[in-house]
Amino acid sequence: MLASEAYAMKRQLVAVALILGTALGGLIAPDASAQPVIPGHVAKTRVDRLTGEIKWHDSLPDALAEARREGKLVFWVHMLGQIDGAT
Amino acid sequence: MRAVSLSQEPAFSALQSDFVCGVKDISRERYAGVSRKHDKDGQAIKTTNGAGPHNLQLFMLAPDGTVLHCLPGYWHPADLVREMELAYQLYDVWTDPSLSRPQKDELFRQMHTAHVRQHPRDMVFRSRMQGFDQQFEAKHRLYTSDTIRDPEYVQVVLQSTGKVPPQGFKTTDEIVHQRMALRPFLPYQDFDVARYTDYGRPFYDKHEDQRDLSGQRVAFERDRDKLIGKTDNLPGKRRPTRNSFQRYLMQRGMQYFLRYGVAAATR
Questions:
Q1: How many CB pairs under 8 A join A and B?
Q2: Higher pLDDT, B1 or B148
Q3: Pairing between strand B19-25 and A73-79?
Q4: CB distance from B166 to chain A under 8 Å?
Q5: Pairing mode, if any, of strands B66-72 and B19-25?
Q6: How much is the mean pLDDT over chain B?
Q7: What are B4-34's pLDDT values in tens digits?
Q8: Are residues A57 and B87, on separate chains, in Cβ contact within 8 Å?
Q9: In B19-100, where does DSSP find H-type helix?
Q10: ipTM above 0.85?
Q11: Contacts of B11 in chain A (CB under 8 A)
């Protein structure tokens, strides 16, 4: 093999390695902006506290009536799903 | 939201002592967004203020049902309490017998507009709009969206780099107060939730259950059966269509029925 052919082959190999490295690196590189998650059992404890220690009305007229009696505002949440179940 | 904001201090104590709480499932409402379904014991993750505006709305109402404040999407517990305090100040205005209705409305506008200027830097930082929501706004309503501070700048950067520049957009805390200032003391039933919460894409999910504890995403499942919300509006949703062969069979069936079925019935 001529020296020039060997050099060309070496360049091609380096190029392929660079392309593969970039592609695989993009797939497996960790996301630097990732935030730690709250484990499921901790999330469940928190939701249980939220729904166990605070009464959640599912009727707005009832919530407004109680707010009038107690002189408070109403915190009315629109959400996908159930506050004590799947959301 | 349940596990990372409402159940956390100082929001939890404020809810417990100063508010009567209630909840409504909006899954079938026309303005609802879409998310992956999360069980109560599923993993949770913090996000930015105002993220997921179509999937969650936090109303603060006077006891007569008047809307004092509405926060779309997730809010950090400390920032949520800051907004709760504003709601109580607005309630004082609403119940002040010495003020006329026009005076109350003007104060409502002023207080919402002024409040955003008082937000601390860390709250403003937590209120940057999600990148995919910025892309949605730039792609679908570059020159009509009230979420974009400088449309021409966004367009130039988008064309040259293919990416949206975050600094071309307003923060969600600013958007919320600007939109609220246009809706002084509205009754809850007259509050236009669809328009008020309309920024960013309808689908919002952080894939909490597909991450390890450090937050790195380790699974890439895309199962449409696990979605919750108004999935009819999702782009790419498969709708039943008839292909030409089905239409041909349908036509032939009808012709056959008319020709022979009706003839047999009248014979």
A1: 203
A2: B148
A3: parallel
A4: no
A5: unpaired
A6: 88
A7: 899 999 999 999 999 999 999 999 998 888 8
A8: no
A9: 77-94
A10: no
A11: none
Number of Cβ atoms within 10 Å of the Cβ of B198: 18
Contacts of A57 in chain B (CB under 8 A): 20-23
Find, in chain B, the residue whose alpha carbon is nearest to that of A43. Answer: B3
Quickly tell me which residue has 């998310």 as its tokens: B35
Q: Closest Cα to residue B44, out of B213, B229, B226? A: B213
3-state secondary structure of B211: strand
**Span A31-49, pLDDT tens digits:** 555 677 888 999 999 999 9
Q: How far is B262 from chain A (nearest CA, A)?
A: 51
CA distance linking residue B58 with residue B56, whole number of Å = 7
- Give the closest of A47, A66, A71 to B3, CB-based: A47
- pTM, to two decimals: 0.76
The two three-digit tokens of residue B134, written as one number: 């910025």
Token duo for residue A68: 């009038």
Sheet bearing A73-79, strands edge to edge: A56-57, B19-25, A73-79, B56-61, B66-72, B186-187
pLDDT per position as a tens digit, B197-252 = 999 988 777 666 676 677 766 666 666 667 777 676 565 554 445 566 666 677 77
